Amino acid sequence: MATVTADADTRPIAPVDVSDAALYTEDRWQEPFAQLRAEMPLAWHPESPYGPYWSVSSHGLIQQVEALPDIYSSDTANGGITIIDPMDEIAQKFENFIAMDRPRHTEQRRVVQPSFNPSEMARREVEIRQRVGELFDVLPVGETFNWVERVSIPITIGMICALFDFPWEERHDLKRWSDWASEVTPDQSEERRMLWLEQMMQMLTRFDRLFEEKRAAPPADDLMSRIIHSEAMGQMPPAERMGNVALLIVGGNDTTRNSMSGFIDAINRYPDQLDKLRADPSLIPNAASEIIRWQSPVTHMRRTALEDTELDGHAIKAGEKLILWYISGNRDEALFADADRFDVTRENARRHIGFGFGIHRCVGARLAELQLQIYIEQIVKRGWRVEPRGDWTRLESCFLHGFTDMPVEIVAEG
């Protein structure tokens, strides 16, 4: 038990509820978080649509919380990894390895990890480069189209299909299930709960067929086979299978998709940065890290205190939830100079926390970076500018940060 000396009655009360999705759909989240970082990087929200919570908004404090997983829990049984509390008994069992504490987290992560090791990434690079090149070859130049639908989604869904040996012709199901699994909303109605459960059961039914095909075959060197033939994950109960499938779909799809769309936003706001990449393509790997920092495709993660403790001089009570605002930590001026600017030459871009920190750092981080690098290479080498044509629509969420519609036109400059 940690020694607690702070006075719980002196809690700094946050001036703005940063869980309000309107801040993100209207792209006005920057100022509220800048105020929190400057005045109260640990702030208490006594009321919100999601109940009371602590906002953790500075880069340093977010890392401090994530470095103490035995005090600040990720486990679904304690509330999970998003600001929303599990709706019912079924949702409380909707476990996956990122929403587990040690030792189960370690055991399951160890099963999945080999699918993202350097040799696997070298193999994946060939197929990603081919798939992205073929997709870019048929994009219309000089016509208006939705970049999210024609580019960001197909690239990332294609990677999920490859990882799971999932039929490409059924890819739209993957996208729909990913959207449902990652949705965070104050709507806790019975109607929404039943719609969510219906989609998750459809996903589980389809993936159980894939699992059984792998179970009937000899163990092989692929993700699905590793899962089904492992001691830690081979006999998961239905809700846990559902949770882990959802995690791998969302982690491999939504986050990379949102960074790809975010890159188009960034190079329109800062066109000089695209010029720098054209002049020096060796900057592209750093640009991939910088867009993850700048876009922050995962807006937040949640932890729940397992005991009374103290953080930044304030008393945290057992059971209270702490929301780690990655989107704020990645704009922390104490670490990132001119933090609101997209800068492909930023020397410390890789210090972003877009993939988390500590034991829960994204297992597929290198795969995401690889896809982003190849995607940026294609834009740079073709001499394209991708310009807005019409209004862009942002995702209505305080959990994922991205775009749903992005009408653009490719202008080829050679």
Spatial strand sequence of the major β-sheet: 1-2-8-5-3
- The proportion of residues forming helix, as a percent range, comes to 40-55%
Shape: globular
Largest β sheet strand count, sense and barrel closure: 5 strands, mixed
Low-confidence runs (pLDDT<50, min 5 residues)? 1-5
Number of helices: 15
SSE succession: HHEEHEHHHEHHHHHHHEEEEHHEEEE
Structural class: alpha+beta
Number of strands: 12
Rounded mean pLDDT is 93
> In what range is the share of β-strand residues?
5-15%
Rg for CA atoms: 21 Å
Distance between the first and last residues' Cα:
63 Å
Give the SSE map.
Elements: H1 22-25, H2 30-39, E1 42-45, E2 53-56, H3 59-66, E3 72-73, H4 89-92, H5 104-112, H6 118-137, E4 144-146, H7 147-164, H8 171-182, H9 190-216, H10 223-228, H11 238-269, H12 271-279, H13 284-295, E5 300-305, E6 309-311, E7 314-316, E8 321-325, H14 326-329, H15 365-381, E9 384-388, E10 393-394, E11 403-405, E12 407-412
Parallel strand pairs: 2-8
Antiparallel strand pairs: 1-2, 3-5, 4-12, 5-8, 6-7, 9-12, 10-11
Helix pairs in contact: 6-7, 6-15, 7-11, 8-9, 8-11, 9-11, 11-12, 11-13, 11-15, 13-15
Sum this structure up briefly:
With 414 residues, the chain is α+β, with helices and mostly antiparallel strands. It is 46% helix and 11% strand.
Describe this entry's structure for a reader.
This protein has 414 residues and is an alpha+beta fold. Helix content is 46%, strand content 11%. It has 15 helices and twelve strands. The protein has helices at residues 22-25, 30-39, 59-66, 89-92, 104-112, 118-137, 147-164, 171-182, 190-216, 223-228, 238-269, 271-279, 284-295, 326-329, 365-381; strands at 42-45, 53-56, 72-73, 144-146, 300-305, 309-311, 314-316, 321-325, 384-388, 393-394, 403-405, 407-412. It has a five-stranded mixed β-sheet. Strand 6 (309-311) and strand 7 form a beta hairpin. It is globular and about 60 Å long. The model is unreliable at 1-5 (pLDDT under 50).
